[in-house]
């Protein structure tokens, strides 16, 4: 597929493209030296992408969301690999309605009055355009997945493989790139999807453990406890059925004596001890006196006419200060201890109060002669046991569910290991070998150095893609340009190697590279453009490059000929800009 025409009903410099080499050139003519990015050489990518049915939202689209484009209709004419021409119309006001017209030959002008074959909604239009394009490369992916490799804006030169639009998970782009390089992307996709399933199972296990407060290692203990509770429930029900509460009375009496009374005795002993310690500390604090009257001491010395040398006075003051620091530390320690003891005392009082209440209830039950009252009380106990049994059962169910999930995770990890083994075997086939050779030949021709596309599995068994120079350090040392410029060349070399590799297939036959010449040495620019023109002829490719006139080599201004220029822009006035406006 190639681009034949891009035009519009208003505010647009209509463009007819050559089937081979095309240059969009911005000429800087005004004295103000306006920002060349406002001329439209980069914005043209967005218009082409819009006509190729990208998503559109007026509120978020930084370019086409501008009110300037209200009422604007864009038209694109594509040359299909079948040799026929497809005209597409898409309007800003009704961006979800797309019109198609298939012709045997290209339009002889920028025609608006067209008898359209059909008008479709966006989703159906994408499917229809996919049919028109009829790519036999990457049959598992529609044309939208790969379009960004052939519409590279400045933001798409940051990484050779992971484009700016691929901001999601690895499964959203790695399987596609694997397919693009000739491998089976399904292997990566299946592995990543299973890993997502494992993550979901882990979250479910975590939820179960938090909600049910379980530990799978406690299963045997819980099953034993369940058996005890069932026996206890059965005995309790038998007593109730017979209206015989003798055993329950014995149990209650035992609970009263052995549990509650013993606890009360221990608590009261602790309360007495804490109360005693509180009284002792409060007494000690009241007796501490850290006020020392130095005037009174001096007066005492004068009364007995005792000589009081300065050195002795200083030593005595040091002693007083030391004593004061000891007193202060002791007060702080006693105060802190007192505070903790009072908290313990309060807590003990609450516990004793609770136990006294339980004791009162049990005594009341033991001394109650009314069997019906006892029946009701023991029935409550039965209900409590039943609730406890259900709680234990719920925990056991949660443990069983957790164990099933853990086994599922184990099984899925075995599947992942199989997928990793398949990926390792797949990489040894080096299906990308031809693309790699073309890629290296392009870099070699332009920079006289070697470059390599390589794939490997990381520690997690995930495929990593890499494209880099073989003598990168030397390359950077011998040039004023930095890594960003050379990364850009890797990106364009990759795109071209794809087009050349699939040139005998039904696939994209064009690529649009924005600002690729910026920052390059003049000798590299000359080699690059000459190589591109050769590729266009040899492999029947369409190439679109954007540049400003200052990007042209000073000693070879005719590198881009007049016939190569498909769009001429300038900053002198609005008529020189793509949209005939400034905004």
TrEMBL record:
Q: Does the keyword Ribosomal protein apply?
A: no
**ATP-binding keyword on record:** yes
Keywords tagged on the record: ATP-binding, Coiled coil, Nucleotide-binding
Q: Please give the InterPro entries that the UniProt record associates with this protein.
A: DUF2326
Q: Where is the DUF2326 domain?
A: 442-579
Tell me one Pfam family matched here. DUF2326
Give start-end ranges for the coiled-coil region(s).
184-218, 338-365
Domain of life according to the entry: Bacteria
Can you name one GO molecular function term for this protein?
ATP binding
The protein's name in its UniProt record: Putative ATP-binding protein
């Amino acid at each position: 597929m190639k681009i034949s025409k891009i035009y519009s009903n208003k505010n647009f410099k209509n463009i007819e493209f050559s089937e081979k080499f095309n240059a969009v050139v911005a000429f800087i003519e005004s004295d103000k030296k306006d920002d060349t990015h406002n001329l439209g050489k980069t914005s043209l990518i967005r218009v082409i992408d819009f006509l190729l049915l990208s998503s559109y939202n007026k509120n978020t689209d930084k370019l086409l969301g501008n009110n300037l484009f209200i009422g604007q209709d864009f038209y694109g004419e594509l040359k299909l690999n079948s040799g026929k021409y497809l005209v597409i119309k898409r309007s800003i006001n009704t961006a979800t309605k797309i019109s198609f017209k298939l012709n045997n030959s290209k339009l002889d002008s920028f025609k608006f009055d067209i008898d359209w074959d059909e008008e479709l909604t966006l989703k159906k239009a994408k499917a229809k355009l996919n049919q028109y394009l009829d790519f036999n490369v990457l049959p598992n992916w529609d044309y939208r997945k790969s379009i960004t490799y052939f519409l590279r804006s400045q933001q798409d030169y940051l990484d050779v493989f992971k484009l700016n639009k691929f901001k999601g998970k690895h499964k959203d782009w790695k399987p596609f790139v694997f397919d693009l390089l000739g491998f089976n992307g399904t292997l990566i996709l299946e592995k990543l999807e299973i890993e997502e399933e494992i993550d979901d199972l882990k979250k479910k296990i975590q939820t179960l453990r938090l909600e049910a407060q379980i530990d799978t290692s406690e299963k045997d203990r819980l099953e034993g406890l369940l058996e005890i509770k069932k026996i206890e429930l059965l005995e309790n029900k038998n007593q109730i059925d017979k209206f015989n509460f003798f055993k329950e009375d014995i149990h209650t009496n035992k609970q009263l004596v052995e549990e509650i009374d013993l606890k009360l005795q221990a608590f009261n002993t602790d309360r007495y001890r804490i109360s005693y310690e509180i009284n002792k500390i409060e007494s000690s604090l009241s007796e501490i006196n850290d006020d020392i009257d130095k005037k009174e001491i001096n007066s005492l010395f004068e009364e007995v006419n005792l000589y009081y040398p300065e050195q002795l006075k200083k030593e005595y003051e040091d002693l007083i200060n030391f004593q004061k620091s000891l007193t202060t530390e002791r007060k702080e320690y006693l105060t802190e201890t007192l505070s903790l003891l009072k908290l313990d005392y309060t807590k003990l009082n609450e516990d004793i109060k609770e136990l006294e209440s339980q004791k009162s209830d049990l005594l009341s039950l033991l001394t109650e002669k009314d069997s019906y009252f006892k029946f009701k009380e023991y029935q409550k106990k039965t209900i409590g046991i039943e609730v406890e049994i259900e709680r234990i059962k719920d925990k056991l169910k949660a443990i069983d569910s957790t164990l099933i999930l853990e086994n599922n995770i184990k099984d899925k990890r075995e599947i992942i290991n199989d997928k990793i083994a398949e990926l390792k075997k797949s990489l040894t086939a080096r299906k990308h070998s031809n693309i790699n050779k073309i890629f290296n030949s392009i870099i070699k021709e332009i920079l006289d150095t070697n470059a390599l596309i390589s794939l490997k599995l990381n520690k997690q068994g995930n495929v990593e893609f890499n494209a880099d120079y073989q003598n990168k350090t030397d390359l950077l040392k011998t040039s004023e340009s930095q890594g960003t410029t050379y990364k850009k060349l890797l990106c364009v070399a990759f795109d071209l190697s794809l087009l050349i590799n699939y040139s005998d297939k039904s696939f994209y036959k064009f690529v649009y590279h924005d600002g690729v010449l910026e920052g390059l040495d003049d000798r590299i620019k000359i080699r690059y453009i000459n190589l591109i023109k050769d590729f266009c002829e040899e492999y029947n490719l369409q190439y679109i490059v954007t540049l400003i006139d200052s990007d042209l080599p000073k000693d070879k201004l005719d590198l881009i000929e007049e016939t190569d220029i498909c769009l001429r822009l300038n900053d002198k006035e609005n008529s020189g800009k793509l949209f005939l406006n400034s905004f």
